[in-house]
Amino acid sequence: MTKPQWHVFVCTHRRPQGHPRSSCSERASDDLYTEFTQGLLLRNLQHRVALTATACLGPCQAGVNVLVYPGAVMYSWVEPGDVSKLLDEHLLQGKPYQDKLTPEELW
Fold first, then answer.
1. What is the set of domains in the chain, with CATH numbers?
2. pLDDT at res. 19
3. Residue 56 or 18, more confident
4. Rounded CA separation 51/103 (Å)
5. Paired residues of 11 in beta bridges
6. What would the DSSP string read from start to end of 7-44?
7. What percentage of the chain carries pLDDT values higher than 90?
């Protein structure tokens, strides 16, 4: 694999049902990961982007959380319908997707 231009981490952390912090897996993070995979393929970005399912990124109350490097840009409350905008605006246009940026008080 060549060195990626971006690295996208999607929280897929699982906690036991009823855990007080919840988890991104309870908010369909696996579906979100699949949507990222398909979005990268559609845009022919699979060789420029490393996509990684990861454990907890921190603000569990705001999941599903996604972290993009370089720049350490965190997105929260991300749903499958947000993936196209996130990929197009952040990765292809170089502007963070404002609608889903994690608030400073959480990140």
1. 6-100 (3.40.30.10)
2. 74
3. 56
4. 23
5. 54
6. EEEEE-----TT-TT--GGGGTHHHHHHHHHHHHHHTT
7. 73
